[in-house]
User: Fold these one by one.
Assistant:
Number 1:
Amino acid sequence: NAGVMQNPRHLVRRRGQEARLRCSPMKGHSHVYWYRQLPEEGLKFMVYLQKENIIDESGMPKERFSAEFPKEGPSILRIQQVVRGDSAAYFCASSPSAGSEDTQYFGPGTRLTVL
Amino acid sequence: DAKTTQPPSMDCAEGRAANLPCNHSTISGNEYVYWYRQIHSQGPQYIIHGLKNNETNEMASLIITEDRKSSTLILPHATLRDTAVYYCIVLLSYDKVIFGPGTSLSVIP
């Protein structure tokens, strides 16, 4: 069973461009969480999604950031008009469908660099 | 804010047991204790979790006090590859993980 997949692993964007980060959860997992780790800081929760639904977006910046988890395909974290302060490592985690085992398993992350 | 308190750093000799403490005095009855670690800048790695009982897996053991206000993660034979930041987290089912600063464990040759 492959783990959580994220791509790209490294992404370089210029200020004002768009960044799209993809997360493929583990097989059988229908819950996806996104976290951000700014340089020299801890991990911070951004958003929690189930298939086609946003459950908790309390950690998402109010502007320029959006997330989706469509019925088919990976979860996408989209950052519009990137700024230098968006440079960070973005991690997604997935957990299984409803049940007693809901451990979150993390992917390797996408390192975003904004020039 | 994280609901746990951990020492900021610890050292452990290679081959010895590493005992990482965690205080979670405000834990509620249905919150689990989870441990993750982050090696360098990799994605956090799940280690172990428990509710009330002590737990053991191939990576570590988790000892939870009877009152559940504290716990200890035990790495039985630490290796250099265990050098990482270890996070103790209390968590409801299907809830976001709130990471504190964790404990930076250095395994020394």
Number 2:
Amino acid sequence: IAGITQAPTSQILAAGRRMTLRCTQDMRHNAMYWYRQDLGLGLRLIHYSNTAGTTGKGEVPDGYSVSRANTDDFPLTLASAVPSQTSVYFCATSTTPGTDTQYFGPGTRLTVL
Amino acid sequence: GQNIDQPTEMTATEGAIVQINCTYQTSGFNGLFWYQQHAGEAPTFLSYNVLDGLEEKGRFSSFLSRSKGYSYLLLKELQMKDSASYLCAAWDSNYQLIWGAGTKLIIKP
């Protein structure tokens, strides 16, 4: 593993289904973030984790949940997907929370029909 | 409210210079980032400014004026590979990044 990996690369999902997007890092960064990116809008923060065992809500958390059982993994779950959750999802990490540079994974393109 | 404004699209010629502007309004300010994002790829870090002035990194420079809530990214000696979106993002007082929608830069031969 080199850096940040996300899985799947892309997914088409029926509305109402449950889906977990995976994010794994090998950089031993403390902070991790989930963003969604929609055309014409800036990246929007969904949830974040400043360190293993803690999570927090970002700007658009409704319909999403996260967990941070260890340093490396930060999965994002859509409990019951809706079409408005169609987006590109990016996981990011930083050495520490706060003003450190954030590094991004390759993204997951999710389509909810 | 909090807001980041940058032009939607710009066009420039290979070998030329282009300046991409960004204005921000945030509750507090703790620094500003510029990222590059090629189509279908992840954003990658270009620069970070927290103090007023110009930061130069090779062909790319970034400027910040905190009193004016203004930054720009200057790209010199443009190459075709510089065709990408450029994202401006500012830290607010809660240490959350507020992102602009990005400026799509088109380079013509």
Number 3:
Amino acid sequence: DTGVSQDPRHKITKRGQNVTFRCDPISEHNRLYWYRQTLGQGPEFLTYFQNEAQLEKSRLLSDRFSAERPKGSFSTLEIQRTEQGDSAMYLCASSRGAGSHTEAFFGQGTRLTVV
Amino acid sequence: GQNIDQPTEMTATEGAIVQINCTYQTSGFNGLFWYQQHAGEAPTFLSYNVLDGLEEKGRFSSFLSRSKGYSYLLLKELQMKDSASYLCAVSLNTGGFKTIFGAGTRLFVKA
């Protein structure tokens, strides 16, 4: 297993377009997280899955954002009607275990630029 | 609300010791993580504390005081490659295991 994989690595889109990102977690990991990171800031929590169930979604996230993990394996994050403020690095992370001591392994991220 | 505070930047000399502090105010606590993030790269796990006290791992140690909402990361024998951002993160007891991050501390190691 080569770790958490994200695709694409970079995406440039025009304002108003929809974009979709994919994350393939480490295969035995049942938890999957999406974060957004802007320059000089820490990762900001977006949403979290345990297997295929989306257990929590940030209240900061507008209805333009949606995430799925249909079979409890890979996940997609879609942003509809993109805005310039959506420009950021989108990070996916996965972890395993039933307790809290489960460090997350991060992918290299998808850098989104909205022009 | 949830709040995690860290210094924005620190500078230290190669071979020295540096302590990066983190204070948190959160509703629910399942543990505290430290991650390292080099510029343009993904965060990587350094340490985890859930009980009060010091956890040592090679050149890196992390301390937690739950009653004070305080942690620190101690880096010994600094090397140039330790120049990076250090992220303090808290796992929340929200029914799941949501983890939130501080803004990070950028550490510059100079020769």
Number 4:
Amino acid sequence: DADVTQTPRNRITKTGKRIMLECSQTKGHDRMYWYRQDPGLGLRLIYYSFDVKDINKGEISDGYSVSRQAQAKFSLSLESAIPNQTALYFCATSDHKQGDSYNEQFFGPGTRLTVL
Amino acid sequence: AQSVAQPEDQVNVAEGNPLTVKCTYSVSGNPYLFWYVQYPNRGLQFLLKYITGDNLVKGSYGFEAEFNKSQTSFHLKKPSALVSDSALYFCAVRPRNTGGFKTIFGAGTRLFVKA
């Protein structure tokens, strides 16, 4: 979805390096998410943010950190990358400003990260 | 534990034939149910959702899904498959009354439509 962009699209790095994945959205949504996709495991939630001042850990947050720089920007950092963090990473957004909890998510195109 | 099962890793169907991609879930209450599709090198795209009401939900690209409360299933269907429907399909379940942040995804089913 062009309304949610991710950079870089592909990244190869070495063990121990710090890297940052960035996500921007033009949908005006309040909520943003970072997921990780591994073959056969579906998507797993790393972090989510309800708004700029509200950031929460997901089910697999160890080894990751995030920053919500603005409503439209949500970045994911790997402080010291390790090989088992090799995966496809997706940013997503959703609109809950009306209090609805059944709205669908909109996903970015993904970042393929390889840690050697 | 809450879970979503997509029992088939891959579904093969001939173009023009009906298709079904299965999904069952183990989530308490009456969760919201979603289907997403992922094409190569793309993010997930929303297809349809079930909130309440009619058990048959219609979505994008001619897809529909049938909710069965007693079987806790939400199978994706299409009357006539197209080669362009070949993609990875994810079922997702969101418990109610959890603030709306938690969505549990199935592992995905790869649909292959042969011409």
